[in-house]
Write a structure and sequence with these properties.
Distance between the termini of chain A: 30 Å
Number of strands of chain A: 0
Oligomer: heterodimer
Structural class of chain B: alpha+beta
Structural class of chain A: mainly alpha
Radius of gyration of chain A: 17 Å
Largest sheet of chain A: none
Strand content of chain B: 15-25%
Number of helices of chain A: 9
Strand order of the largest sheet of chain B: 1-6-5-4-3-7-2
Shape of chain A: globular
Order of helices and strands of chain A: HHHHHHHHH
Order of helices and strands of chain B: HEHHEEEEEE
Chain lengths: 175, 178
């Protein structure tokens, strides 16, 4: 799919948006190089200004599925079977940035990465599982406050097909 | 999805790993790392004046060095906590050689790194406390080195607490630190 929302700005071919380019800098990757736990990395990524900036870009639809597709494909050119993928943290950062994005491609990407069973991308996969768990827990919280009068009115205004999916009601961004 | 489906991956590898109480610990063995990473780690050691111990590699991480004899990586904080509880570790304020240093992210209460104390160096003055020197395996794809316990490069914005843990029998003293 090459969907593009009307609010997105046009990008020249081969131009990497700055929010994505920032993930490729050594300064970004080096800050995580000493962390040995996947959940530690997940929380560190959530707090990283570069990931927050990408999250904002996705929320404001400055960039979308097409840009992520081009970017990740470009990083995967360095993939070598049997060798740890060097840009795992970059792929994981994109997944974490997608965590609060209420778009089909964002959820699909997190799910796909979380479900991968590979030696080369195991760390990115573990981090995506934390992102997926966070989405699930946020969804649960949304349901628990549904008795609140304001929230209940919001739910009533949703089309019937959206009630129960709840994703429209928690688009808050990374904090 | 984003080109991931077009690549051929290797299945994840792990080993059977259990605590002394028989609880299974999830683990995975990473693949080799690129040659550039090996040189980058050597440079990192030189720049930080860490004593190089082993080349960068992806087979194990810091927890794998400490609790799995360099055979595999243990990546989840909940598994680290399980090992600490099941294998009889307890926090200590008077660390000794062979005790562990765990680096905890205070804000999110997750462990970031674990290392083993191998020696002590004198502090600034004769009255200062001795400074622990640890053996570390950094991250999932760097190498091993010796460094001062407080000499890590976690991002400066992190609120990192260094916790000392031991599984020594109580009241046992190590002459190196007394």
């Amino acid at each position: 799919m090459w969907l593009r929302n009307s609010g997105q700005k046009d990008l020249k071919m081969n131009e990497t948006p700055r929010q994505l380019e920032a993930l490729t800098f050594d300064a970004f990757r080096d800050q995580f190089s000493q962390i040995g736990s996947a959940d530690g990395l997940y929380h560190a990524l959530r707090r990283a200004p570069e990931v927050k900036s990408l999250n904002s870009g996705l929320r404001e639809e400055v960039l979308g599925e097409r840009e992520l597709d081009v970017f990740i494909r470009s990083r995967l050119k360095a993939f070598v079977a049997g060798q740890q993928f060097e840009d795992q943290i970059v792929v994981a950062a994109v997944a974490v940035a997608c965590e609060t994005i209420n778009k089909c491609f964002a959820r699909q990407f997190i799910d796909y990465l979380a479900n991968m069973q590979t030696s080369e991308l195991m760390l990115a996969s573990l981090i995506a599982r934390h992102a997926r768990r966070s989405i699930t827990s946020t969804t649960t919280r949304t349901f628990t406050v549904s008795t609140d009068a304001v929230a209940w009115q919001m739910v009533q205004r949703l089309p019937k097909s959206d009630v129960g999916q709840s994703s429209r009601t928690f688009d808050k961004g990374l904090v | 999805m984003f080109g991931l489906a077009e690549l051929s991956f290797s299945p994840p590898q792990g080993i059977t790993l259990v605590t002394s109480k028989g609880n299974t610990i999830a683990n995975h063995q990473g693949g080799e790392v690129a040659a550039g990473k090996i040189q980058a780690f050597k440079d990192m050691c030189r720049q930080n004046q860490w004593n190089f111990r082993r080349h960068a590699g992806g087979l194990y991480n810091c927890a794998g060095l400490i609790w799995a004899s360099r055979r595999t990586g243990i990546s989840q904080t909940e598994d680290w906590r399980r090992i600490l509880a099941d294998d009889g570790y307890r926090p200590t304020s008077r660390p000794q050689i062979d005790d562990l240093v765990l680096y905890r992210d205070v804000d999110d209460n997750t462990y970031l790194h674990v290392a083993r104390i191998v020696s002590f160096k004198p502090g600034l003055t004769p009255e200062s406390e001795l400074v622990p020197v640890v053996l570390s395996k950094w991250g999932h794809d760097l190498g091993e080195c010796f460094h001062l316990a407080r000499e890590h490069r976690m991002p400066g914005t992190y609120n990192v607490a260094e916790e000392f843990w031991t599984e020594r029998p109580k009241n046992e003293r190590n002459p190196a630190t007394t």
